[in-house]
Model the fold of this input.
Amino acid sequence: MNDFDNNFETIIAMDRTVERYNRYLKKTEYLILNVLKQHSLKIIGYSHLKLQTIADLLHISKKTVYRTLKNLDEKGYITKIHTVSGKRKNNGALVFRINTYTQYEVIREKNVHAKMSTLNQVIKTGKELSQQALQHVHAKQETIFFLNLLNIFLSNRKRLNKTHSKVLYHNIKNSDIRVKPMEVPDAIYNVAKPFFSDEEILSLYKTMLKETISNNIYDTENHIEIMIYAIKSLVKAKKKEFNGLASKIKNDRAYYIGILREYIGQHYFVYNAVI
Done:
């Protein structure tokens, strides 16, 4: 450990940087990062803790600690430093460095470039998905065209039996042709599609965005996680209501918002201090 220089000039500087990070962390990430901070005082910014020690301090599993540290590392808040020891240069102690905000920005910039490279590799796939979306739109347009034709046929009793044409009109109008709202991620749409109309899914998605963004949650993966949980919870509640196992839900939207807020409160740390 003596080979490391202080990453921060003062403990106060480290504390303020961690406070800045806290605004964007989930609850478990917040707890683990602050444990590292509390054990980074001898050499400011560096700590050496076993995973099991962190797990015991926070009363969580070792796997959760490992997964959370990996996330903090990938997001640029900390850096795991693998040391070597002995003449054979075996793996030594695992050291955790709390990154300064400048280091965090550099790491984040690298991650952005890496994501852009990945994005360029899947442009062809994106084009194929766009073509599929256009096909859905064309199918919708064809349906409208046929409905217009049927309206013409209905006005001419001599050419088409009125009763039969009404049945045909009803079948086409109520067909299952659907077009996914472009704003809604596929993962969310696939879960919600069996239970809600496209308009309802879009409305639920916008409601979720309002709740998450107001709590400084901007990551798309977090949005997907939160909304899928809320949709599944709402559907389960409606099933219980239908089967007479629970009281009637007075307002589906209000119930859905309640699920969102409860989940965000339990799994995400909202830091309100102004830096």
Q: What stands out?
A: DSSP finds eleven helices and three strands in the chain. Residues 182-275 form one domain. The chain has a mean pLDDT of 79.
